């Protein structure tokens, strides 16, 4: 879960000054010092830049008020008593379309009392950690660790708290462009432009009125550390009322690491090798939404905060979500809380001596890291052994990282009481939990993060082009043999991205390529593409990928049938919520002649003979996961429709439904039902093909097992050991002419034993084909349904 952890750090704690292994001394015209003693790096705000930063006088006036309110310490707020709910979940997805597999999550319910000059007291009412793919003991250890360091519960407000949940947690902090640039921080005018938007007026019970005004924030450049979105402020006080924003573009980890490596040759060499094996290594923040509520007609305090995003490493995606909700009582009227006595292990990060270089510096860092880990581990272990207080609770006194907030955390000695608390309900992975859903959130996103909310268009100030090569662009199949390519992607600003791909097959000596212009807001992407590509006729799996090429090369398992297509397409893809994607196309289709039969484990079968001709039409695909808890009922739906005219006129539609749920004890049952049919004259390359790991296991894909209609079912009962699952399965299916669907005869069939890990993300099947082929078949696959 390295990627998920990294994404969570980038979003929730990225603004906290990072623990750098060496001080960064970068002097600029601004020259301000940051909180950790290093020189900040930022552009100077010239009179010209400030004059161009504001589209209208109202925006400038509101910005100045908001900045003053951000920097000022509101001493009139002295205390509050809050109920806090938090939840974080991270999943793994292997394919771009398909169910995700829950990997990690935590949820808490707590009472948080804060008093100025003292700190915060957190009394845990409920807390649980879920690691579905690890032994249960790991969940206990993770929960204890999170409780002991005081990081599990959110504290809604404290002096120095950053209202935007972004950038430097110190309100008085200037911009440091090595981190996310806060759009209201000192120096932000050099990085953003501002425009006033909608206004809203409310009448309070005491007949006074509050006027709210929107400030639209747009970055001057398309960079990962700049935000785009809208902020709403109280016009009178300048306090934040709500915010909806995202980062302007994904953060490319390799590029950032290359900048940090600078002239370190060994580090740059390691980065180059890493890029060859995993060219895609990035994080995306698709939305952050914050809502505030008014208390005592004076204080705006956070009501909810949510974040959505994902990390990607090679072909693996890690969606991450964070939710926090707050409710308050006794604002400025609560009783005092006890003084905080620190007893958590003192474990500060110490900068290495400037005299150390090279291997000596690395050795110093490693020894310090090991020493810190030993101290923290010893402290956590002592919690299990130390006697309990009279009320059967433990109390940890610590300071919140970076903010230096004194913090007392009180929780039961018996952690099972937290996990089974009535204050927690449903599942950690339940996206529709009533405790965290908000209709306002969806409305704010639709208003502030539409496809039109973008950085400016321009070739200056955008990120350098990104080149991708290596394993992600390499594959092996019966047509191309070994094929590899080079892609380039260039941000154009305004959400526009231009990209190109060149690919060469060493068996067919064919040069293919694509040119595309897309516009995206990280939630939806519209793209126009011209192409000359090899396409797969199969509806299941992803034969034209590196992960499918490994079994093709090693075991002769090329489950794809291929044809060539040259033309253009207009696509719309969504990456949040239910996926509804559509495609309009016009292309010339032709046969892709088989050029190799070689594999280490056996020869490939023949490829299809495609119908030559021109085709134009469209297609739509809907995919969605219902329920995400691996210990509960889950369902996955995949619906596909396509119609085209030209040399062949046809329509086709199919639907796959998969259900999984616990049965008795650790037994889990999984059922898949699928079916499809067509109208018109369906060409060979648009027929359905059954057989292989995704349909009828034990049967090999075969051109003879194809048709313009099909159905199949897959049933499995397995024992879940958390770290892995072993099950028995049986598959049945039929494919043929739609006019003979009532004359099925004997269906295709196979049975076998399956072994899976990571909730099915990695799977191996040993199958026995029963009909029409009686054979044994061993398959290794990635990204199965459940």
Give a topology summary.
Blueprint: H1 2-12, H2 47-53, H3 57-71, E1 79-92, E2 101-115, E3 119-130, H4 136-148, E4 192-203, E5 209-219, E6 227-234, E7 240-247, E8 251-252, H5 253-261, H6 265-277, E9 281-295, E10 299-313, E11 316-329, H7 358-385, E12 393-399, E13 406-412, H8 415-419, H9 439-448, E14 466-468, E15 475-477, E16 481-493, E17 496-505, E18 511-520, E19 524-536, H10 546-555, E20 562-574, E21 579-591, E22 613-626, E23 634-646, E24 650-662, E25 667-680, E26 688-689, E27 706-707, E28 709-720, E29 724-736, E30 748-757, E31 762-771, E32 775-782
- The overall strand count is 32
Rounded average pLDDT: 85
Q: What structural class do the secondary elements suggest?
A: alpha+beta
User: What percentage of residues falls in helices of 4 or more residues?
Assistant: 10-25%
* Overall geometric form: globular
Beta-strand fraction estimate: 35-45%
Could you list the spans in which at least 5 consecutive residues all have pLDDT below 50? Answer: 1-8, 10-38, 167-172
Distinct helical segment count: 10
Number of domains: 2
Distance between the termini: 19 Å
């Amino acid at each position: 879960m390295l990627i998920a952890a990294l994404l969570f750090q980038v979003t929730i704690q990225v603004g906290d000054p990072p623990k750098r292994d060496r001080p960064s001394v970068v002097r600029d015209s601004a020259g301000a010092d940051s909180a950790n003693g290093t020189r900040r790096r930022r552009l100077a705000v010239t009179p010209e830049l400030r004059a161009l930063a504001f589209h209208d006088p109202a925006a400038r006036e509101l910005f100045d008020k908001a900045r003053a309110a951000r920097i000022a310490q509101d001493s009139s707020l002295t205390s509050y008593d809050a109920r806090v709910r938090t939840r974080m979940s991270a999943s793994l997805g292997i394919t771009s379309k398909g169910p995700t597999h829950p990997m990690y999550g935590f949820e808490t319910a707590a009472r948080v009392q804060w008093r100025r000059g003292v700190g915060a007291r957190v009394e845990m009412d409920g807390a649980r950690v879920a690691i579905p793919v690890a032994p249960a003991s790991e969940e206990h250890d993770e929960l204890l660790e999170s409780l002991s360091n005081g990081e599990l519960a959110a504290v809604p407000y404290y002096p120095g708290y950053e209202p935007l949940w972004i950038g430097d947690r110190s309100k008085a902090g200037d911009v440091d462009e090595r981190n996310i640039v806060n759009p209201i921080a000192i120096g932000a005018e050099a990085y953003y432009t501002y425009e006033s938007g909608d206004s809203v007026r409310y009448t309070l019970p005491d007949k006074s009125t509050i006027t709210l005004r929107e400030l639209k924030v747009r970055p001057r450049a398309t960079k990962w550390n700049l935000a785009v979105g809208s902020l709403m402020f109280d016009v009178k006080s300048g306090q934040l009322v709500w915010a909806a924003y995202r980062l302007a573009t994904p953060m490319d980890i390799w590029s950032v690491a290359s900048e940090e490596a600078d002239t370190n040759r060994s580090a740059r060499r390691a980065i180059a090798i890493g890029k060859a094996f995993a060219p895609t290594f990035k994080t995306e923040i698709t939305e952050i939404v914050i809502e505030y509520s008014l208390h005592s007609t004076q204080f705006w305090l956070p009501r909810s905060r949510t974040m959505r995003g994902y990390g990607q490493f090679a072909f693996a995606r890690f969606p991450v979500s964070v939710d926090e909700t707050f409710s308050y009582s006794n604002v400025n009227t609560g009783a005092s809380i006890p003084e905080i006595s620190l007893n958590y292990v003192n474990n500060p990060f110490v900068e290495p001596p400037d005299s150390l270089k090279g291997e000596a510096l690395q050795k110093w860092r490693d020894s310090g890291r090991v020493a810190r880990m030993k101290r923290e581990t010893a402290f956590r272990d002592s919690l299990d052994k130390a006697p309990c207080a009279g009320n059967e609770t433990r109390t940890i006194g610590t300071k919140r990282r970076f903010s230096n907030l004194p913090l007392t955390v009180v929780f039961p000695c018996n952690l099972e009481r937290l996990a089974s608390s009535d204050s927690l309900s449903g599942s950690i992975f339940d996206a529709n939990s009533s405790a965290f859903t908000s209709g306002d959130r969806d409305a704010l996103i639709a208003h502030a993060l539409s496809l039109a909310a973008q950085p400016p268009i321009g070739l200056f100030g955008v990120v350098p082009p990104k080149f991708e090569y290596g394993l992600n662009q390499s594959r092996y199949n019966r047509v191309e043999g070994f094929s590899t390519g080079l892609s380039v992607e260039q941000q154009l600003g305004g959400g526009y991205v231009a990209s190109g791909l060149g690919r060469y097959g060493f068996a067919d000596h064919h040069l293919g390529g694509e040119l595309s212009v897309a516009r995206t807001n990280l939630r939806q992407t519209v793209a126009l593409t011209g192409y000359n590509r090899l396409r797969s006729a199969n509806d299941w799996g992803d034969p034209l990928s590196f992960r499918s090429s490994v079994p093709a090369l090693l075991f002769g398992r090329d489950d794809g049938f291929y044809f060539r297509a040259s033309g253009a397409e207009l696509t719309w893809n969504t990456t949040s919520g239910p996926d509804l994607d559509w495609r309009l196309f016009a292309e010339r289709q032709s046969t892709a002649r088989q050029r190799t039969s070689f594999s280490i484990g056996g020869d490939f079968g023949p490829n299809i003979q495609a119908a030559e001709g021109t085709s134009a039409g469209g297609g739509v695909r809907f995919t969605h996961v219902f329920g995400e808890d691996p210990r509960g009922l889950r369902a996955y739906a995949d619906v596909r429709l396509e119609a085209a005219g030209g040399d062949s006129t046809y329509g086709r539609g199919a639907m796959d439904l998969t259900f999984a749920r616990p049965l008795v004890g650790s037994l889990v049952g999984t059922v898949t039902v699928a079916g499809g049919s067509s109208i018109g004259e369906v060409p060979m390359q648009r027929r359905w093909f059954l057989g292989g790991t995704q349909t009828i296991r034990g049967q090999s894909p075969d051109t003879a097992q194809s048709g313009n209609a099909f159905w199949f079912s897959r049933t499995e009962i397995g024992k879940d050991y958390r770290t892995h699952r072993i099950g028995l399965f049986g598959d049945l299916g039929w494919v043929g002419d739609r006019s003979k669907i009532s004359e099925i005869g004997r269906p295709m069939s196979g049975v076998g034993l399956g072994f899976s890990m990571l909730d099915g993300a990695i799977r191996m099947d040993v199958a026995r084909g029963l009909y029409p082929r009686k054979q044994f078949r061993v398959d290794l696959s990635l990204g199965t349904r459940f």
